[in-house]
Amino acid sequence: MLRPGSTIGILGGGQLARMLASAGARLGLRAHVFSPAADDPAFEVCAARTIAPFEDEAALAAFAAAVDVVTYEFENVPSDTAAFLEAHSVVRPNPRVLALTQDRFTEKNFVRGLGIETAPFENVEDAAMLAEAAASLGRPSILKTRRFGYDGKGQTLLREGVDLAAAFQSLGGAPCVLEGFVPFSREVSVVAARGSDGAFRAYDVCENVHERHILALTVAPARISAQTAAAAVEMARKIAEAADYVGVIAVELFVVEEAGGERLVVNEIAPRVHNSGHWTLDGAVTSQFEQHMRAVAGWPLGSTRRHGVRVEMRNLIGDDAEKWPELLAEEGACLHLYGKKETRAGRKMGHVTRVFP
Amino acid sequence: MLRPGSTIGILGGGQLARMLASAGARLGLRAHVFSPAADDPAFEVCAARTIAPFEDEAALAAFAAAVDVVTYEFENVPSDTAAFLEAHSVVRPNPRVLALTQDRFTEKNFVRGLGIETAPFENVEDAAMLAEAAASLGRPSILKTRRFGYDGKGQTLLREGVDLAAAFQSLGGAPCVLEGFVPFSREVSVVAARGSDGAFRAYDVCENVHERHILALTVAPARISAQTAAAAVEMARKIAEAADYVGVIAVELFVVEEAGGERLVVNEIAPRVHNSGHWTLDGAVTSQFEQHMRAVAGWPLGSTRRHGVRVEMRNLIGDDAEKWPELLAEEGACLHLYGKKETRAGRKMGHVTRVFP
């Protein structure tokens, strides 16, 4: 258990790191942010900073020596960086989960190995394998690169008639998985945390609406049965336990309505605080950011109790952030802006939460 | 109206500045903290920093040039500093309120001039004036220095038999006021904000318990009638309007129970965010810190709606902060630690809030 005044090292300097650093400061924890990008938003709220490439071993060694524990805001931490830091410090969550979640094929096999359903999937390493997979899984299906995809990047929809070889080449010829179609009625996520003592706590399962492959809206709680919600939380617990996880984890699931009830299909695991947990900043006793800092500090997890009967979070993407004057003036709306210097289409600039009493 | 990405200059680097800076960051506002003390807690969460004495005009000029508006976390900003900054930037709240609140005698006359009751008081500049004042106000009464008193510092109780000349000398012979005894049943405060557009919003009136002259506990809402609460808010509004105030203001009041109801007596005005408003960090839609940043940025004020049926805030003074492990483990408790490097008796090290649903 770290003492207050200890320093949490954070790899990455985006909005998640920024909100982690601020949440740590509330608890008397110092944040040391490591990122290659000098104008990253987290640098404006942290006690110490390293601006260096993730491959700079001298900078990594100095960083490891200056912090009490290392965590990260994104799953694409290079594996050499993670291995180097693990040799010089404590890294939480443990980097094995990075290897798991950086590769969709590995991740899906891991989830399936726990007896949890995923979308049907096939490994695709060339056009011939894609033809075979498409024949087996049918269409529509989705071809996704195994690595480095997010917010709809690195994926393409295979409808009837789409040329398979061209589709494969459109993703750069990188190793892929083909995912079969899941006729889901809703997307939900479990944002939860596991402490270093093995304690596990989940927030209310929340419901997510994506627009153009980017999260647009989260509503907590999700409109699913209590039984389905409990089952989703159990899946997240199983995954966290199997990965010997410490920190906040997010599990995205599809809900498929069937005669007799709702079936859950795991879509993706994020080994970090997650956009669909931003509602907890204003809508829960402990925010996901504080929860993560508590976990990586070896501290007890906080209460995940929700405020109000319903909480909504809307992302402000690109020009949406220009609505800040009306959002500031809206009764009960809580505006969050990430301090990004440049607005770009598709870029997450902020979000707004609304707690309904 | 400043744009997001603007810089708010904050004079002072203590916990109030720290929480102001963090609240601003949520809104995409940068904080530039100016303080003479290099290890002040606010320096760990701000985008820019100046470590210099408040009398350093070169540093003040550079600071004024680097920020879009100046605010402060404490009322004892030297008047020359305030005047210099006002000549080079916009200062909010306007520094005339500093002159008002730095001197108990001036403040009480101002309040009384608005038709609002204060404790009976007399100006005391020497032992003879004290003898006269004590004869007029009776005992027990409290002798307070006109300037620089806080948390019970700079004051002494005059009971029957206390030697008046010695009492006056014990406060250094500085100009004082003698305050008559107020037989109050509770202490309450109004934490409110006035926007640059004149809008005024108050949080629920809260009730304060002091121990050894330091705030120990705040409970919102106060156990007073709705009518008394409304009257207290109206006093705060009157004070804020008369001072052409912009920002968060706190008004401390005594509640005196009388046949026929409750009477309100203003004790003190704080031209800043206030310890008795810390409960709003977890217990209200908009924290007092965000509210202050909104006001000084020229933005609309946020909702002051309370979460839960009751919110409590307890200060962690000196060694109290050593209870952090049990507070972290307590269900529903929200721990705040200020990151102060040294624990001292009587020093505010953090606080804990509890929202009762």
Q: Topology of this structure?
A:
The structure is a homodimer of 357-residue chains.
Chain A: E1 7-11, H1 15-26, E2 30-35, E3 48-51, H2 57-66, E4 69-72, H3 79-88, H4 96-101, H5 104-113, E5 121-124, H6 127-137, E6 141-145, E7 155-158, H7 164-170, E8 176-180, E9 186-194, E10 200-202, E11 206-211, E12 214-220, H8 226-242, E13 247-258, E14 261-270, H9 280-283, H10 288-296, E15 310-317, H11 324-329, E16 333-337, E17 348-356
Parallel strand pairs in A: 1-2, 1-4, 2-3
Antiparallel strand pairs in A: 5-8, 6-7, 6-8, 9-10, 9-11, 9-13, 11-12, 12-15, 13-14, 15-17, 16-17
Q: What is the gyration radius of chain A calculated from CA atoms?
A: 20 Å
What distance lies between the first and last C-alpha atoms of chain A, to the nearest angstrom?
36 Å
Question: How many β-strand stretches of chain A?
Answer: 17
- Envelope shape of chain A: globular
Tally of separate helices of chain A = 11
Largest interface: A-B, 44 and 44 residues
Class by alpha and beta content of chain A: alpha+beta
- Using the 3D structure, state the CATH architecture of the largest domain in chain A: 2-Layer Sandwich
Strand content of chain A: 25-35%
Query: What's the rounded overall pLDDT mean of chain A?
Result: 96
CATH class of the largest domain in chain A: Alpha Beta
* CATH fold annotation of the largest domain in chain A: D-amino Acid Aminotransferase, Chain A, domain 1
The SSE string of chain A, one letter per element, is EHEEHEHHHEHEEHEEEEEHEEHHEHEE
Question: What is the CATH superfamily label of the largest domain in chain A?
Answer: ATP-grasp fold, B domain
Major beta sheet summary of chain A: 9 strands, antiparallel
Q: Helix amount of chain A, in percent?
A: 25-40%
Quickly count the domains of chain A. Answer: 3
